[in-house]
Specification:
Layout: H1 3-49, H2 55-64, H3 72-75, H4 80-90, H5 102-118, H6 128-132, H7 136-157, H8 165-174
Helix pairs in contact: 4-5, 4-8
Protein name: Calponin-homology (CH) domain-containing protein
Domain Calponin-homology (CH): 47-151
GO molecular function, one term: actin binding
Length: 176
């Protein structure tokens, strides 16, 4: 047995295992977004059948999240408030990391950015590192893009029972 063949089998095995892990992660991520889209469509159908919820009921749902924003740049750094905002606005459930290390913050913000790209929202030059590092211009650009998209979506769907972006942001900021 040559030295090259001795080392190539474990290396190939590790590469195959790494590829399986990447494929599984990619599949779970896609399944989560597809399931979320199905859940959102199901919710729209249910809301069409039942009486429309008032805006005050939606405001209570936002208050129930228990999220609070005092400083926009600092409070969006960990990604939890950003994920919560997208969950409220879209009605979908997004996965999140529970830790407080930089890696967890980057992962949460990246999840939010990936979800926005999945929803075909164009993000120009906004990276997870920029939000975690509290870059004010790019953070405000991201929030503005989210407001514009969901406001337009609201106007297109003409659903009176959904919570507007302005109300969701207002409650996240003023919930003291």
């Amino acid at each position: 047995m040559s030295v090259g063949s001795f080392h190539s089998k474990p290396v190939r095995k590790r590469q195959q295992t790494a590829q399986k892990v990447r494929d599984e992660y990619s599949r779970k991520k896609t399944d989560c977004y597809q399931m979320s889209e199905l859940q959102r469509l199901k919710r729209v159908d249910e809301e069409a059948k039942e009486p429309k919820k008032t805006e005050k009921v939606r405001e209570k749902e936002v208050d129930a999240l228990g999220r609070r924003v005092d400083d926009l740049f600092e409070d969006l750094r960990d990604g939890h408030n950003l994920v919560s905002l997208l969950e409220v606005l879209s009605g979908d459930h997004l996965p999140r990391e529970r830790g407080q290390m930089r890696f967890h913050m980057l992962q949460n913000v990246q999840t939010s950015l990936d979800y926005l790209r999945y929803r075909k929202i164009k993000l120009v030059n906004i990276r997870a590192e920029d939000i975690v590092d509290s870059n004010p211009k790019l953070t405000l650009g991201l929030i503005w893009t989210i407001i514009l998209h969901f406001q337009r979506e609201k106007e297109r769907e003409k659903e009176t029972g959904t919570l507007s972006c302005r109300c969701a942001l207002h409650h996240l900021v003023s919930n003291k």
